[in-house]
Amino acid sequence: MQEQPDMEFGRRAFLIGFGAIAAFCLWVLADSWGDDILGARVFLALFSFSAVLFGVSLALTGPLSTGRSLLGGLMLAVPVSALISWAGFRFDEASQFLDEPSALAIGGLIVLFATPFISTLLTDRESWLDYEALFDTAWTITVRYIAGWLFVGAFWLVLILSNAVLELVGIDIIDVLFDIDWVRFALSGAVLGLGLAVAYELRDYVSPRLVLRLLRLLLPIVLVVVAIFVAALPFRGLSQLFGDFSAAATLMWAAIASISLISIALDRDDDYGINTYGMKAAARSLAFLIPVLAALALWAVIIRVSAYSWTPDRVLAATVAVVLLLYGLIYALAALRGRGWRRAIRRSNVTMALISLGVAALWLTPVLNAERISAKSQLQRYVSGEASAMELPLWEFSANWGRAGADVLAQLYAMQEANPDPELASRLAALETAETRYGFEQDIGNLNARNRLDRLVPLIAVRPEGAITLTKEMFQALPDYRLERWEEGCRRTIADEPSCVWLVGPFLPGVEARDQAVLIFDTGGRAQANYVWMKDGVIQERVRELYDTTSGDWGLVPFDAVRRVLEGSFSIAPSGISALEFDDIRLVPGN
């Protein structure tokens, strides 16, 4: 039904004015960042409160009256700003909390998940958990905001072109306005409000239908990719997958994409959702694969934590992986049902949205204080002897992990007085004199270079056993960048298995067998091999990569080459010069 012109005018006027005020207020707060006018804690509370209030109110105005939209904004702004302010007490300076990317991400996640519930609650209290209403509300808000920001971009493009035209005749009034920060902000807010108002007025045309129909076409592509990945795992193995922390992030994004595409394909109900047999089979099949992606992601994080202990990023990754695994298990169980499997998945989306909201809220409370969890675990790892002082994240303790990091630093100083550790003492001294992270890392790098051989040599396994005894003096001629790379690879020990091996053998003619070797080390999911040779008991600076005569690759060898050498699953065969063989792979030192 067509709205009255005065209703449209009133809504436009409100959204234009409210958008301008919102942008101006956020500019004032941003401009006062670091000033003494507002205390850091007051600033943090005001900034989070204003951002949520304005963002949610703008999103809800149209579907709801102006009064109800402001009420909805308040219903979210108060608890979210309270949680963020509470989390700010993890730091001596509360504004430091906003320097953590996870803080903004978690706050945004709460707003993203909670806004549709607020909207449906204010529309009809009895059906605020109705999936159809939640689905439509969420996607309507998304499309309105996309349209609004596109309009803002188009507005500024036109204004820039208009300014260029007017400057041709000596009129620079638009250019003068460009130079005033608050004018740019307020104008952008007003234009965004106008865009949101018009997008709502044309909701029969500017609807999520087109976007959803296009996105669901990606479902079969994602299914094929994930299915190939899972099918290849038994042949490729898990060693390479778990060698790199980024693998966990990739798997989690794949799981998120799969969950999103299934929800989009099923839509608000069976009438709007996919109905062809092929698409339903694709959605159902992908639902069974999500737990595999999530479980592998979680296991990759666990492997990383077991080797290097917790950091805030790893705490966040583990939390997300657990939530995704729960999502995947619920989706898979729903897909096992008969005719009602699509309805079961839709219901589970409501449950998981509420669970995600709860987990995000817990993140901002002491229950999931990532800095405290990380600092304590790093300290315990050092105290138990699992890590050396070199591996302690001292700069993070001092600058990034707030009060929890400061508490652990204080404990380290106390331990140093009771039981001195020369390595820890030197690093604490570097921390006290460094003014920036770069300066600290430079000092630590110089210190590491002086002590590197003390750490590297004991990490290298020699095969055949007893063929040679490695000493620090043998490595003296090598540049530090080479030693650093070797040390990094040799430190990737998992489950007490060496991650690098010195394989002595007669690879090149004219050189004594005991004076030449292939060093194989882990590079984070892949193995790499270097040919080295000695003269007068000193390893020469020129280090060669191994060349794969079968594939033409340089340097890279089978990802499990270290294990296979330790087990004796290799051979040294002549190929003009002797070659290192792994089944059908033949490797020779390059020129």
Description:
By secondary structure, the protein is α+β, with helices and mostly antiparallel strands. Helix content is 63%, strand content 8%. It has helices at 5-31, 40-60, 66-88, 101-123, 131-167, 173-178, 181-201, 209-216, 219-236, 245-266, 277-308, 312-335, 341-363, 370-383, 394-400, 402-418, 422-433, 437-456, 480-490, 561-567, and strands spanning 461-463, 500-504, 516-522, 527-535, 538-539, 544-548, 556-557, 571-575, 577-582, 585-589. Strands 1, 2, 3, 4, 5, 6, 7, 8, 9 and 10 form a ten-stranded mixed sheet that branches. The termini are far apart. The mean pLDDT is 86.
How helical, in percent, are the residues?
Answer: 55-70%
Shape, per Cα inertia axes: globular
The portion of residues forming beta strands comes to 5-15%
Average of the residue pLDDT scores = 86
> What profile does the largest beta sheet have?
10 strands, mixed
**Rg result:** 30 Å
In short:
The chain has 591 residues and is α+β, with helices and mostly antiparallel strands.
Give the secondary structure arrangement, pairings included.
Elements: H1 5-31, H2 40-60, H3 66-88, H4 101-123, H5 131-167, H6 173-178, H7 181-201, H8 209-216, H9 219-236, H10 245-266, H11 277-308, H12 312-335, H13 341-363, H14 370-383, H15 394-400, H16 402-418, H17 422-433, H18 437-456, E1 461-463, H19 480-490, E2 500-504, E3 516-522, E4 527-535, E5 538-539, E6 544-548, E7 556-557, H20 561-567, E8 571-575, E9 577-582, E10 585-589
Parallel strand pairs: 1-2
Antiparallel strand pairs: 2-3, 3-4, 4-5, 4-6, 4-7, 6-10, 8-9, 9-10
Helix pairs in contact: 1-2, 1-7, 2-3, 3-4, 4-5, 4-13, 5-7, 8-10, 9-10, 9-11, 10-11, 10-12, 11-12, 12-13, 12-14, 14-16, 15-16, 17-18, 18-19
